[in-house]
Amino acid sequence: MSVNLLPFHDWLVELRRHFHQFPELAYQEEKTAAKICGVLSSLDVPFQSGVGKTGIVAKLTAANPGPVIAFRADMDALKIEEANEVPYKSQHSGLMHACGHDGHITIGLGIIRNLIEQGWRETGKGEIVFIFQPAEEGGAGAKAMIDSGVFDSMPVDAIFAGHFHPEYPTGDVSIAHGTSNAAADSFRITLKGKGGHGAHPYQCKDVIVIGAYLITQMQALVSREISALDSAVITIGKFHAGTASNIIPEEAVLDGTIRTLTEEIRQQTFRRIRELLNGIELAYGIFADLHIFDGYPVLNNHLELAKHAHACAGTILGQSHVHAERPRMGAEDFAYFCQRWRGMMMGIGCH
Questions:
Q1: Is 185 assigned a catalytic role?
Q2: Catalytic one of 24, 74, 76, 250
Q3: Is residue 263 annotated as part of the catalytic site, yes or no?
């Protein structure tokens, strides 16, 4: 290992600020990956790059036999213009590490250095696989890395990950015992009616009015057909129609997202939206087309691992700093790893 490293805390700060300055989108994390590979080389840690396009898999192996544990850190950034005026502000216009992945990478590299300096390779047991993953923000980078086949020969016993949660103070963590994050599916609805002049709506089939009605009816699906003890979200994020203020358009397009915590509610929601559109076609004499695009699956923390992590965190931080987390309706592609192996994700306070 290089003898010219900064003191540990200063090294972590420098790394995180470097990653923050150079955010990159999904599957474009070339500079990010190069920096990670450089750090791994300086620590004399073997790795494989180019996994799932820009992902990296590194391994720490102890002298004694034992289990194989994995740790995942995601790498990609978001299309957000950074407004913070700090010395390490994003240098890539329109891009920002607003979801904390710069910190996730730094944590992964910090664990590696700390284990090496503590002599884990000489005294520890087993192997730790460090997964630096691309494209968490909608690109299913976890699935891409799994599909690459690189893990086929790795008998991983459990995988762990962390995600910054700014609602908790630094020094606190949160753990969901069971379901952690919702499944996320997107959809597009195309309504085709009859256009015409805005002064004569009775001669038209107004897809804007029909679309507005549809939006309210979809909210009623959640509030009146799904138990208050279950959870579902239907959100319309885009509603595009028309080209002029006095013209009723022929077509409207609605794009949205569906968030659910169980497969039963997920399929019920799909079915009821289809039935609702069938009814609208009959009621208004229009054509309604629905396309559902499968997204990330539900992330379920393994109960035994969650219990173990809760106990360990309580010992280190104090039980008052470990919070039981409710399921979140945001999605997380770490779910793909948890489908393959036992796994759990912990929330990390950073406020």
A1: no
A2: 76
A3: no
